[in-house]
Design a protein that fits this description.
Layout (H helix, E strand, L loop, with lengths): L1 E6 L2 E2 L5 E7 L3 E9 L3 E11 L9 H4 L7 E3 L8 E9 L2 E9 L9 E5 L1 H7 L13 E3 L29 H6 L17 H10 L4 E5 H6 L9 E7 L2 E3 H12 L3 E7 L4 E6 L4 E3 L33 H4 L2 E8 L12 E3 L17 E2 L8 E5 L2 E4 L2 E4 L10 E8 L17 H10 L3 H4 L6 E9 L5 E4 L12 H14 L1
Parallel strand pairs: 2-8, 9-11, 9-12, 12-14, 13-15, 14-25
Antiparallel strand pairs: 1-3, 3-6, 4-5, 4-7, 7-8, 10-16, 15-16, 17-20, 18-19, 18-23, 21-22, 23-24, 24-25
Length: 484
């Protein structure tokens, strides 16, 4: 048995972190390596003394509190990046990570902020996650198997044929000893492939964590471009403040994501844990107080009154699911192109009505959109939902919010997304207005802030699954080249 995690999860160059190991092997080897286009070993130590460390019964919510096994101080000029931590003894291994924030030299043109808050929400190591009954989850514990490393070829969350049970990924993961929740979050799924692709194509990428957006003053100041990739579902008030201030001041953002910033969280215990009541927001103790704006429900909740449109331009409440469960059961997984003259499509030869990303079904799993109307045969935002006035709809695809009877059976204890979103938006009169969000769309969109910042949003979790497609790759290069 080997388990491990690093603390803190994010450090500046020259700032120490510790690796905390629990193992019934008396000696373990530890390797720390930056992961990108190449794997660069930062530190290796062999024969480190280890022992079994007690895991508290409330580890999932309060953390493990393990003692230090190994203390490592990166060089003062260490390159920013995601660093894998591999702990081995014989044939057994444990995986952990640490992020070295920028600061060891000239900044890269872009800062990728990993969706570590979302990883933590899904993490079911040591007890309940936010998906299995928990409302508070600790960062100070290992990530369950599958979040950081999966065996190749790793399967995607989406299914080849939608089904009521939604078991396709589960049936692959369970026999391998992986967390069944690791299909929805973690380094391996999306951010890893983006960093490898970007650095292989000549882009320098600095890296930080979700929490860093709130805790590191001026984190975004040296950059032209903020990047989010994959599934970045859980955001705090401070995270949104940081990104919105950045784009309002002329900075740019690229969301190669879906279901982005859907739930509000509160970081607690010096950012060692986070709270999110989700569907049970009425139980959140801030309700009815002067802190009600920090209610940990959906950002579109009328009591929070801060829809994610202001940050990303789009919202899961007007998107939902595609090719997952019973979300658009026969959806192609492709976008339909509407405005091929937009700069994002330069060099692709895409035309009006062409499909984008069909071979890889990039429009899958969870997707974001906005309320649409047709004007002269082209979809345009109505702006009735709060979508930015300058938002352009570049491409779209059908999407659905599950009703309670349609969602995979493992979510049977939750209200349907359609019912939940309708209540969040419309209150007691939700049934009268639910039709407004019944037939939704995923959207590829772009808008400009009053301060001159440009925000591009791919509108889907699985955009990076299509980076082998020449059109998807070219659009991504156009975005990075123009905005960074």
């Amino acid at each position: 048995m080997i388990e491990a995690y690093a603390w803190p999860q994010s450090v500046a160059p020259g700032e120490p972190f510790t690796v905390k190991v629990s193992s019934d092997h008396p000696r373990v080897d530890v390797e720390v390596a930056r992961e990108g286009a190449d794997r660069a070993v930062l530190h290796r130590a062999e024969g480190i003394t280890a022992s079994v460390q007690a895991t508290p019964s409330d580890a999932a919510s309060a953390g493990c509190g393990w003692g230090d096994t190994l203390r490592i101080t990166p060089p003062s000029k260490a390159r920013s990046g995601y660093h894998s931590i591999t702990v081995t003894a014989g044939d057994e291994r444990a995986d952990a990570f640490v992020v070295i924030r920028p600061g060891g030299g000239a900044p890269a043109p872009m800062l990728l902020v990993l969706s570590t808050a979302t990883w933590n929400a899904y993490n079911d190591w040591g007890g309940p996650s936010l998906y299995t009954g928990g409302t508070r989850v600790s960062f100070e514990r290992p990530l369950a198997p599958g979040f950081l490393v999966k065996p190749e070829p790793a399967r995607r969350k989406m299914q080849p044929r939608p089904d009521r049970e939604g078991l396709w990924f589960f049936e692959w993961a369970e026999p391998l000893g992986l967390s069944v929740w690791s299909g929805g979050a973690g380094w391996w799924n999306w951010e890893r492939s983006f960093v490898r692709w970007a650095e292989s194509n000549g882009y320098a990428v600095d890296v930080a964590t979700s929490q860093d957006l709130e805790t590191v003053p001026g984190l975004l100041d040296p950059y032209r471009l903020f990047v989010s990739v994959g599934h970045d579902e859980y955001w705090s008030w401070g995270m949104r403040d940081a990104v919105e201030a950045f784009t309002a001041a002329g900075g740019n953002a690229a969301f190669l994501t879906g279901n982005t910033s859907y739930w509000q969280v509160r970081f607690e215990d010096d950012r060692r844990a986070m709270t999110c009541f989700k569907y049970r927001a009425d139980e959140d103790p801030v309700l009815g107080t002067n802190q009600e704006r920090t209610l940990t429900g959906a950002w579109v909740d009328r009591r929070i009154a801060r829809p994610e449109f202001a940050t990303t331009g789009l919202s899961f409440s007007r998107g939902g699911y595609s090719r997952y469960g019973l979300g658009v059961p026969r959806g192609s997984g492709a976008y339909t192109v509407w405005r091929p003259e937009h700069w994002a499509f330069e060099g692709t030869d895409l035309r009006y009505g062409d499909t984008l990303g069909m071979a890889d079904a990039i429009c899958a799993y969870e997707v974001d959109g906005c309320e649409l109307a047709l004007v002269d045969g082209l979809p345009v935002p109505t702006h009735a939902d709060g979508a930015p006035g300058s938002l352009e709809v570049l491409a779209s695809a059908p999407a659905r919010l599950w009703q309670q009877h349609e969602q995979p059976s493992r979510y049977a204890h939750e209200p349907g997304e359609l019912e939940h979103v309708a209540r969040s938006l419309f209150g007691e009169a939700w049934q009268e207005h639910a039709h407004r969000i019944t037939n939704n769309h995923a959207v590829v969109g772009c808008f400009t802030t009053a301060g001159g910042g440009t925000v591009f949003n791919a509108g889907c979790t699985d955009w990076t699954s299509g980076l082998g497609d020449p059109d998807v790759a070219r659009i991504t290069r156009n975005v990075l080249d123009r905005l960074s």
